[in-house]
Every structure is written in C-alpha cells, then in structure tokens.
Design goal:
binds adenosine-5'-triphosphate, 7 strands, binds magnesium ion
Length: 258
C-alpha cells in the first residue's frame, strides 16, 4: 500500500491516448463522492488538463465533496503527500501520449504511487498493437511486484465481431487480471458531461449508466469498500427493468481475483 493509512489512491492509466481515462476518472470521482460519500481529490496528470478543466468549467454541484488539481508526474510521491491529506480517495487521471516513452513514464509513476490501478483498453484492431505493447512492456513486469493491485477494463466495447475477438484474446492473458464488467461504447458518457453531470445523475435508466454502476460495484468490491453498497444497488435498481432482464447476466458479479 503506497498511500497514507486513510487515503487510498487509485489511478486510471494507459499510455495510449483516447481510451477513455479522463471520462472514467470524472465519472468515478462523482460516483465515489455521491454514492460512497467520500471526500475525493481528482489529480490530472495530463498537462492538457481534460478532467481538471471539466471540473472547473462544468461541475457546479455544491454538495460535491470533490476537489481537482493538476500535478506533474515528477516527484509525484512527494507532491501527493502534500495534497492528499484529509481525502478519503485520490484518483489519478494519467496521460496518454503519442510520445510512447513519455506516456509510459507518466503511467509507471501513476501505477507505482497507487493502491489500485485501472487500465482501460479498447478491444479493437486499431488499438490492439498499442494495448499489447503497453500490457507486455509495462503492466506485466509491474504486475509481478508483490503488492501491486490492478485490473484491465475493457473500454468502449461494441458488439462487433472484431471487438468480440479481441475481448476473447485478451481474456486468455492470465498474467494480468481483468474486470468482469466493461464500459461500452456510448455517447452518453460524453453527453452527460456536457450537462455537468455523471452518467448516473444524467440518465439513471440508461444502459451506459447500468454498465458504469456494474463496474463501479465490482471496483468497490475489489477495493474492499462495502459501506456504500446499498446506495450503489439502489442506483442500479433505478435502471429500467427491461434493461435488467435483457442483461440479467451482468447482475451476478464475480469478484476478480487480484
Ligand atoms: N465509453 C465511451 N464510449 C464512447 N466514447 C467515449 C467513451 N469514453 C470516452 N469516450 C470519448 O472518447 C474520447 C477520448 O476520451 P478521454 O479523453 O476520456 O480519453 P483519454 O484516455 O483520457 O485520452 P488522453 O489519453 O488523450 O487523455 C472523448 O471524445 C470521449 O468523449
Ligand atoms: Mg485524458
């Protein structure tokens, strides 16, 4: 465990750009604040500042217990020590970069300073090479470290054959744990943000919300959090019954061993 006793640090990491890191980091910050009643610090490690800019420009909910800031990845541990006091949870939104070495450097810093790392990977032909390199060169060697907890999250998934193929291939990799749940490709994750809201606040009945909350529940279980479980379940119950019956399988979550 890398953080102070009472503050957990989770990171959302992939050197590949555009896999949905910032979108997920924002949704998670709001979910931990609203559904778990946590005081959350969102740290944007990207100098483009996507998630930080979003919070500053769009989020106007006074009841939030969320702060956001930018930190450079250099001396990250020292900087995190300074800013994380008093927070239940720090979420690191890492940087994707065309400059692979730079992206990897920030990713490694984020992973090594986290208690738990989420790695969104898009299972498509175009993303596959970058994802495989990242997992083989960066994640697998780090995952060999004893107390490193991480999970690969399939992101922007579709029902296409290609997506299905890559999903099956990735799940054959038994070196790195995968989340059972996944985040589908859906415009709702962006639509809600343009209204200053997380998906579960904007459209509680939408499939995108359902998928996010299912993932959130799995994540909380992996992190050992149970106190907000009822709130998460009651949010899940708000999801339209027809969606539920069609996707009943997803309700039975299996904890991913880490
Ligand atoms: N689940 C999703 N379904 C569809 N579109 C998504 C999803 N998640 C994110 N997007 C869209 O994909 C684009 C990239 O998302 P985002 O900025 O979150 O990725 P990122 O990994 O943080 O990128 P970068 O590495 O450049 O920081 C945005 O246009 C966003 O709206
Ligand atoms: Mg980003």
């Amino acid at each position: 465990m890398r953080s102070k006793k009472n503050t957990k640090i989770i990171s959302v990491v992939n050197s590949k750009g555009g896999v949905g890191k910032s979108t997920l980091a924002i949704q998670l910050s709001i979910a931990f604040s609203k559904l778990m009643n946590f005081k959350v610090l969102l740290v944007d490690l990207d100098d483009q500042g996507s998630s930080l800019n979003w919070f500053n420009m769009y989020r106007e909910d006074d009841s939030d217990k969320i702060s956001a800031c930018h930190l450079a990845s250099k001396f990250l541990r020292k900087q995190l020590k300074k800013v994380s006091d008093g927070y239940d949870l720090v979420i690191l939104d890492s940087k994707g970069s065309r400059d692979r070495a730079l992206g990897d450097k920030v990713s490694v810093e984020a992973i090594l300073n986290s208690d738990y790392t989420i790695i969104p990977v898009v299972p498509t032909a175009i993303d596959d090479l970058a994802a495989s390199d990242f997992v083989e060169d960066i994640i697998q060697p780090l995952a060999g470290e004893e107390d490193l907890a991480l999970g690969i999250l399939l992101s922007k998934t579709t029902r296409s054959k290609t997506c299905k193929y890559f999903k099956e291939e990735y799940r054959k990799n038994d070196h790195v744990p995968f989340f059972q749940s996944e985040i589908p490709d859906s415009k709702q994750y962006d639509n809600c943000l343009s209204h200053g809201l997380a998906c579960f606040e904007y459209k509680p009945n939408d499939m995108a919300t359902r998928s996010f909350l299912t993932f959130f529940q799995e994540l909380c279980e992996n992190l050992g959090y149970s106190k907000g479980k009822n709130k998460i379940l009651s949010q899940l119950k708000k999801v339209n019954l027809s969606h539920k019956s069609k996707n009943k399988k997803n309700l039975h979550l299996v904890k991913q061993p880490l």
